Write the structure tokens for this entry.
Amino acid sequence: MTGHEYARAQRRAAFVTALEHPDAATRERAQQRVQRWNDVLRNTEAGRVRIGSRAPVEGAPVWATPEVVRGGFATGRLAAEGALADDERATASRYGLPEDRRALFDHALSPAGLANLHALLDDGCYRAEQPEETALLTVAWLHRIGEHLAADRLVAELRPWADRLRFTPRAAAAPVVGLVARQTVPETRKALDTKQERPQIARMRETLAVWNPLRDELVEHWRATVRDGWVGAHRPPEWVEASQALQGRFDELAEHHRLCDKPHRPDDNLAIMLRALHDDAVLPLLAVRLPRMTPRPPERAEQARVAAQPTHPQLAQVVGRRLEGLVGIDDTEALLGPVTSRELPALPDDEPVPAAVARLVRRARRGTVEDLVADGTIPSAEVLAELTPTLTAEAVAADAPDPASRTLLATGLRAFAARRSLLLTGLAAQVRAEELPWIAAVQDRRRPGAVSPSRARLVALGELALANFPATPMPNPLMEQLQVLGRASGAELPLVPELAADIFEGRFSRTFARAASLAGDLLDGTLYARYYGRRHEWTADEFSAACRDRAGDPEWSVAGNGAVIEQAQVLTTHNLIVLAGPLGVRIDWEAAARESLRVVTVHLRDARHAPGRRGALRSVRVAANAWRQLVFHLTAAGPEATATFLASPVDEGVQPLVHALRRVHEGAFLSGTRAPRVAADLGRYPFLGWVAGGPHPAVG
């Protein structure tokens, strides 16, 4: 699928959602996505956006942050442009300036503007949504340390964009500290205030509170007509008037209560009783059903009690109000006491905070990343990757010249980390933070000879990820942060990204060859090398050719590309060798292998019972990734631990894999490097997740 085809497909999907989704907020967000994809297509076709370029917006420098949508496509707008924010308009009003960015830019460089920037540098109470918003703060800092020429050069580079981009920061209540949280307090309050009840629970409540009482009224209404066993035999005028009132009430309720469709089904008792009000032909059917419709008072009383209980959204909004005025949350349990009748007057008794609401609040707890992993607030390597930019920024900024520059650099790096990756071609690399001239200006002035904490943070994050999520290959965002830490500590580490099979160009960068060569040197003769079959030195061209050859030289397809990429992951160990080798990360490798085996077992079982082929293949690929991690963990654990591990009983579904690994451990060799073609060969070939040209033998 070409870039244009992908963009059109995304626009179509967003358009359908904007038209058909039942939730108004979801429709509005989808309409915004439609507009952004329209921008992608229009600007690409007009040549104002170049797909695959590091600087995709026509005329914009590489440091300008582009607005990027799913898949890495630039819309043609820059992230730091747009209408003036409220604080910018307030500044313009205060100083009698025109409401345009160039006037604000020039004001920031005036004596009054520089004084404001120096005050922000001193107290640290600012934030940046885009990295450009720290640029003029850097100008002020350069003037402060006497680097006037450097400040002038930076201003000259920024000035051509002064009428378009925001280069000043936003106010913050307090400086950002070293603790992290999965969500901010405002994000948590918004999630609590907009929490929706699960559809099945909402339908049950509607049935209990609305339709069951109406059904009971209709039953009593029809029972009053029974004479000598005949339903409808006695219908005085007041009964007819009551019938009209009941029909009218149903119509009104049906207009406002649409979650439950059962009352609208023709065969439902409620629908039958309503039809019988004006259609005597239904009476025989009603006569058969009416005796079985007698309400049971104790049951209805319990249902009414359940229907009257506060909903999760109501309780969530109460808890959200408890968060008012908080900047951060250090103790979530103090906020999660029972909801009282003073907070929610309809409550007869104190009501415990639902577990789902408590989970939302706990996401806002501040703590060290180690604490948040330990208590489950960070449940995956992907979530860990979301939080690492704060830690990375502080580690890199720690050796900046003074406290003001440390806060300044950390703020810019955090904002840069939120910059979305671009779809690139020709093995181009994503823009690095140090390519932004104002960030480089601070980094270039770090204290000479200082002992950087970046390496210590790098090792700590590697150990945290491997020890707690050993079956998960390193997510790209986490890998990118480790690369930042590596460069800051003076090491250009050969960490490799996970590539997308649908846009793979058939070649790998030199970094892949470097990582594979390192793995070849350090793993020669080990269990990992014998299981997967490998060699030592590679050039970039040799490496690309070898991966294709090991995958069976498949024709271009998503599955074929996936098979080639997987061979690259095998040969490079997908970053494990860099962590365990040059960096010296040490964890309980045998425990990591056991957790990886658990994941393999679960996902192979899921694959065999998945309802569709796509879901089954997805589970197999997760299992294959975890298996590759397992083989490396055992290699790092050593032969004795491996022997003990392989002698332990395992689930029947993974026995062929463990048997093959046991034979390799004992000195045998497998039959090749490709994925097996039939189930009988699962124990003779390495277990891989991608198979080109046919079904995977693990699922048939």
Residues 191-197+311-366 form one domain. Residues 97 and 493 are 49 Å apart (CA to CA).
